[in-house]
Amino acid sequence: MGMIISIINQKGGVAKSTVAINLASVFAQYSKVAILDTDVQGSLTQVVEDNENLHIIQVNNLTELKTLDYQVIVVDTPPYLSNQLPQLISISDFIIVPTKAGVLDSLALKATVALIKSSIGALPVKWGVLFTMVNTSSKVIDEIKVFLEQMEVPIMKSIVTQRVSYVRSIIDGGILKSNDLKAKSEIILLAEEIVNELEN
Ligand SMILES: Nc1ncnc2c1ncn2[C@@H]1O[C@H](COP(=O)(O)OP(=O)(O)O)[C@@H](O)[C@H]1O
Ligand SMILES: [Mg+2]
Fold first, then answer.
1. Per-residue exposure over 80-92, b if at least 16 CB sit within 10 Å of its own CB, e if not
2. 63-112: per-residue pLDDT in tens?
3. What is the number of structural domains in the chain?
4. Whose CA is closest to atom 3 on ligand 1?
5. Which atom, in ligand 1's list, is nearest to the CA of 164?
6. Which ligand is nearest to the CA of 159?
7. Do the beta carbons of residue 94 and residue 3 sit within 8 Å?
8. What pLDDT, on a 0 to 100 scale, did the predictor assign at position 136?
9. β-bridge partners, 36
10. Is residue 138 predicted with pLDDT exceeding 90?
């Protein structure tokens, strides 16, 4: 049974699908990885090329995920609070909540955060907010962090900056194929942070 990493934010355009495909491609260097796109209008299925270590999967029921022979399963989700989310959250090992590093963006996290907290309850599911498309000063991010900490939201150490190479990475089959070393290292650090969190 592999680790299930779910990418959740009810807001669209926050880089959920971009993080999903790139994170999956980094794990696929060393592990057998599956991507599940639970967005019915999802586009990942159309852009990700199956390869030896990276499979696009579909399931009839989320409970099947626990029985599949993958080391890592990355689950992309739609830009709304679907009724599948509580179940998905409860079977996940780690939940990434990507968001832009803005004040309004952080306020818009409230419903997602409330759903995650109530669905986790006493389960040992770890999660964290990931700042994506970052181009703001670190001072702004620090202020937003304080705000999120007041909402008792865990914040990931990794960040994903705003870079054209991420836009291209979707067509090119993942950031590892890019020559943007900064972008590559961001996603590798993100993968490492998740593995470290799950080992603790
Ligand atoms: N780090 C980034 N830098 C620049 N553009 C990005 C980045 N991440 C995503 N994008 C672009 O932003 C848009 C929304 O990203 P997407 O992954 O589709 O978001 P979501 O799945 O949350 O709706 C896409 O056009 C994508 O190429
Ligand atoms: Mg998406």
1. ebeeebeebbebb
2. 999 999 999 999 999 998 999 999 999 999 999 999 999 989 999 999 99
3. 1
4. 162
5. 4
6. 1
7. yes
8. 82
9. 57, 75
10. no
Per the CB < 8 A criterion, the answer to whether 116 and 8 are in contact is yes
Around ligand 1, the residues with Cβ closer than 6 Å are: 12-18, 79, 132-133, 160, 162-163, 166-167, 170
Domain extent, residue 90, equals: 3-199
CA of 145 to the centre of ligand 2 (A): 24
Distant-in-sequence, close-in-space partners of 170: CB < 8 Å, separation ≥ 6: 17, 18, 21, 47
pLDDT of residue 108: 93
- The CA–CA distances, whole Å, from 142 to 32, 95, 103, 183, 189 equal 37, 22, 11, 22, 20
The candidate with the shortest Cα–Cα distance to 120, out of 96, 87, 166, 97, is: 87
Give the pLDDT band of residue 200 (cuts 50, 70, 90): confident
Say what the pTM is. Answer: 0.96
Q: Tell me the pLDDT tens digit for each residue of 1-22.
A: 689 999 999 999 999 999 999 9
Between CA 34 and CA 42, with CA 120 as vertex, the angle to 5 degrees is 35
| CATH number for the domain harbouring residue 28 | 3.40.50.300
Q: How far apart are CA 148 and CA 96, in angstroms?
A: 15
Collapsing DSSP to helix, strand or coil, 50 comes out as coil
